[in-house]
Amino acid sequence: MAKILFYDLETTGVMYWKNGIHQISGIIDIDGEIKETFNFKMQPNPNAVIDDKALAIAGITRDDLESYGIGMNQGYKKFSDILAKYVDKFNKEDKFFLCGFRNTGFDDPFANAWFKQCGDDYFFSWFWGNSLDVSVIASDKFKDERSKMKDFKLSTIAEKLGVVVDPSKLHDALYDVELTRESYYRLCQIK
């Protein structure tokens, strides 16, 4: 049984050791079937550095961050409660594959740091250490065309795979997760 957590984060910057998560969205997918979708907006770690440029990319402000009704630890609790419905973290054969777009170099380290900040050193009790990264899978598919492509962003890859993209929704974590999942399955069909 393949358990995949398609996910995306929005953060207060690009350095997982210094910035924090303010949105996490995901789709729990088991054997190709959506079991649950979630979208949490939360206040980042109170010690996180907040880069206004990063907030602008997500289309939010510092006031928006303050208005989020849950803090970092509450967001972690909600997230881990969802995970526990589908994975037994004490069973080393029962884990999620994390799947995102450029997640191995960005989202995965942020998520692992978030767990540690919330007092949980057992991130890999929930997740396999080898993540699925749609940008890497797409790199293989489009290696002969890459030099002619305008960029290698999620929206570009999704459009190239025939997914309709609404540019006004990009950089909302839940929308990006939906694009990532659709792109992943289209890439899997092509192989």
Describe this structure in words.
The protein is an alpha/beta fold. The chain has 8 helices and 5 strands; from the N terminus they run βββαααβααβααα. The protein has helices spanning 52-58, 62-67, 72-86, 107-117, 123-126, 134-141, 154-160, 173-190; strands spanning 3-11, 21-30, 33-41, 97-100, 132-133. Strands 3-2-1-4-5 form a 5-stranded mixed β-sheet, sandwiched between helices. α6 (134-141) runs parallel beside α8 and α7 crosses α8.
Give a topology summary:
Elements: E1 3-11, E2 21-30, E3 33-41, H1 52-58, H2 62-67, H3 72-86, E4 97-100, H4 107-117, H5 123-126, E5 132-133, H6 134-141, H7 154-160, H8 173-190
Parallel strand pairs: 1-4, 4-5
Antiparallel strand pairs: 1-2, 2-3
Helix pairs in contact: 6-8, 7-8
